[in-house]
Amino acid sequence: MGAYWFRNNSSTCEEWTVCEEKFVRDRVGSGSYWQMNTNGFYVSTGHIMVDLNVSLETSDSPISEAEEYIKRGCTLLLIQHLVTSIRHFRELYDTFLERLDGLPIDFMVIPVIKAMAVKPEMVRYFSRRGCPFLCVVVNSQDELAEVKWEWLVQAQSHKRIPFTLIVKDQKNKSNNYLEMWSSLRKQYGIIGLTDIQDDEMVTAQNLRDSGIFPSKGGFQPGGQADYNLYLIDEGTTFDEQRNFRYHNSVPKVTVMNGKIKQVNQKVVNYDPGSHLKVKIHKHFV
């Protein structure tokens, strides 16, 4: 789409400039910049989502599933990878990445490991591979307490990859895991995501904790030019625009890396995305 600028049609009147695939602070080069008319649209950042509801790892058609996420405004998909082997997890990870080749969306991989199976060498390996965070699956409070956290914290120290919990306690869902997790983090100095990531949409704070932001997830100079355009109903006030909720809405247009990916819920650009890697965890907290 070249070089252009546009504004958000809200009371803040924010303006953003795009050159090639990135947001820029100032105009770059001597070429002309055209204005993109966004009248009638609400502009949001591209959504960073976890494949919680529809897992690409178990899907027979991961490319088709990725397209469905694009239609919902996702411009970076965090794909869960269940770690099933203590000795062969490296080879299985590489095999999994090969299966994701050709996805039409940018993606990262988040390892999901049972509490009793997570090892320090796994933490070091997945942090070196640029995974944004690591999910520890617990089935009971006893499991959570029995993990050798002191060893895992030592493995965290180099790259500072955060942990988060996935609770699968079917017997007693009243257990207060959040309090116990908070206590363990303080006791051992565990680096963790601020928010429990139990929703598809990654929270703004978790984007910072994981190191995904500012490359993705905001209108940040130097960041990737990802955004969504949502139609605004005629007569909508600025206050109503400010309170707009896009969680269950679908965008009219989705742009990823400066290129249009979908229009009217139809993917129009099938160029493969990239496997992105975090360089510095918790750097912008």
Spell out the blueprint of helices and strands.
Blueprint: E1 3-7, E2 15-19, E3 22-24, E4 34-35, E5 41-45, E6 47-50, H1 62-71, E7 74-82, H2 89-99, E8 106-114, H3 120-128, E9 134-138, H4 141-146, H5 149-156, E10 163-167, H6 177-188, H7 204-210, E11 227-231, H8 238-242, E12 253-256, E13 259-263, E14 266-267
Parallel strand pairs: 1-4, 6-7, 7-8, 8-9, 9-10
Antiparallel strand pairs: 1-2, 2-3, 5-11, 11-12, 12-13, 13-14
Helix pairs in contact: 3-5
Describe it.
The protein is of the alpha/beta class and 285 residues long. The protein has two domains: 3-46 and 212-267, Urease, subunit C, domain 1; 47-203. The protein has helices at 62-71, 89-99, 120-128, 141-146, 149-156, 177-188, 204-210, 238-242, and strands at 3-7, 15-19, 22-24, 34-35, 41-45, 47-50, 74-82, 106-114, 134-138, 163-167, 227-231, 253-256, 259-263, 266-267. It has a five-stranded antiparallel beta sheet with strand order 5-11-12-13-14, with helices on one face. Strand 1 (3-7) and strand 2 (15-19) form a beta hairpin. Helix 3 (120-128) packs parallel to helix 5. The radius of gyration is 20 Å and the shape is elongated.
